[in-house]
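User: Design a sequence. Structure:
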């Protein structure tokens, strides 16, 4: 990295900027490209900046003004930190620092900014991994570019979130896993996308895609889709077997599943309400208001009505209504649970009968094959015995002829 005031070097990499940093790249004789990046948990604090990289259209495969500072772009989100460390394991001892950042417009990917101990190791890393597939099952390739400079452009979040040591303090931070000092000279350091640093050897043992400290995960959960038409709108989940189908406003695959399997209860994914196809209504509507969704107020007859009490709001009446409503809720919950258990039992019985029938058919086929082999063996033994008898008779005749002579 350059020695200009706008360059982030050493321990100052990716720290909170006090002002927007500008740089002049007119002195560079090779073409470069600027890629915006950000790091940090967006809910807490976020640092934004720009990576200036040598373009791939350079005349020379290795830029003359390159430094031991490269960036790996477009790493798939499903590739965890441990997977990436395993991917570049042959060079892990030559890497001083790795920083995970996100690029604008690439929600399903992240980039890695890497600093090597020497220019030779950086060049060998470039030749070995550039345009190489991450694995044999995917078409994505590793895109490696030499980095000219890194600049900060802004910071959002509370200042309290940035933990900077006092100016007089020389104590280095510790790895949250092994509690050893994070020293670039002795071991490589990997900083996650949420700005937590670890030894590369420690993070390599963490198989989860989330951060070991704050559990922040860059990879977004996959959206549910219809098993048939792959739509992600108006989805219904079968409570019995877990089939996900679309509603009647789309392809109607949820109701088709009910007609084929008779699984009458389906959960609406957006509202978590359960629909009963047999009763053609929501099962919750039995105890909910049709207007606001709240519990229906069941008006009980006041014990003081004969004494002229038109509308009694006494505490005892309210308690009785609450108890009565609670009993109704429990009754219908128990009914729903019983029906679900019965349907599950019928489903497993049907599967068990299917397995038993398949096993019986397989056993019958084996028995028939054994019987056929036994019959073949009997025929063969009879044939051998007949051959032996003929041979003994022939030997006996020859012996008699010799005696006569």
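Assistant: Done.
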């Amino acid at each position: 990295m350059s020695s200009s005031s706008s360059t982030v070097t050493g321990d100052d990499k990716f720290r909170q900027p006090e002002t927007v940093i500008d740089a002049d790249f007119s002195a560079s004789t090779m073409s470069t490209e600027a890629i915006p990046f950000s790091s940090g948990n967006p809910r807490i604090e976020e640092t934004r900046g720009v990576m200036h990289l040598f373009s791939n259209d350079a005349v020379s495969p290795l830029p003359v003004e390159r430094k031991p500072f490269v960036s790996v772009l477009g790493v798939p989100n499903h590739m965890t930190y441990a997977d990436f460390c395993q991917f570049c394991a042959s060079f892990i001892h030559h890497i001083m620092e790795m920083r995970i950042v996100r690029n604008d417009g690439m929600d399903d990917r992240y980039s890695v900014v890497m600093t090597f101990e020497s220019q030779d190791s950086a060049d060998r890393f470039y030749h070995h991994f550039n345009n190489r597939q991450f694995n044999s099952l995917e078409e994505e390739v590793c895109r490696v570019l030499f980095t000219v400079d890194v600049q900060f452009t802004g910071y959002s979040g509370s200042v309290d979130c940035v933990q900077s040591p006092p100016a007089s303090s020389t104590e280095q931070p510790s790895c949250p896993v092994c509690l050893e000092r994070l020293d670039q000279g002795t071991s490589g350091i990997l900083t996650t996308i949420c700005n937590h640093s670890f030894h590369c050897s420690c993070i390599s043992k963490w198989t989860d895609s989330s951060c070991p400290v704050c559990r922040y995960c860059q990879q977004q959960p996959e959206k549910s889709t219809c098993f048939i038409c792959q739509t992600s709108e108006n989805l219904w989940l079968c409570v019995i077997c877990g089939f996900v189908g679309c509603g009647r406003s789309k392809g109607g695959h949820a109701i088709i599943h009910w007609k084929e399997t008779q699984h009458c209860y389906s959960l609406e994914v957006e509202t978590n309400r359960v629909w009963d196809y047999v009763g053609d209504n929501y099962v919750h509507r039995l105890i909910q208001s049709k207007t606001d969704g709240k519990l229906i107020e069941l008006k009980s007859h006041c014990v003081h009505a004969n004494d002229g009490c038109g509308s009694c709001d006494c505490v005892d009446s309210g308690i009785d209504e609450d108890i009565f409503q609670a009993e109704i809720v429990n009754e219908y919950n128990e009914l729903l649970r019983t029906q679900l258990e019965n349907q599950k039992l019928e489903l497993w019985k049907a599967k068990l009968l299917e397995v038993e029938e398949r096993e019986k058919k397989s056993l019958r086929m084996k028995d028939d094959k054994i019987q056929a082999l036994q019959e073949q063996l009997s025929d063969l033994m009879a044939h051998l015995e007949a051959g032996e008898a003929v041979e003994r008779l022939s030997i006996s005749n020859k012996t008699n002829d010799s005696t006569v002579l």
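The first helix runs from residue 81 to 87. The helical segments are 81-87, 119-129, 200-203, 253-261, 315-404.
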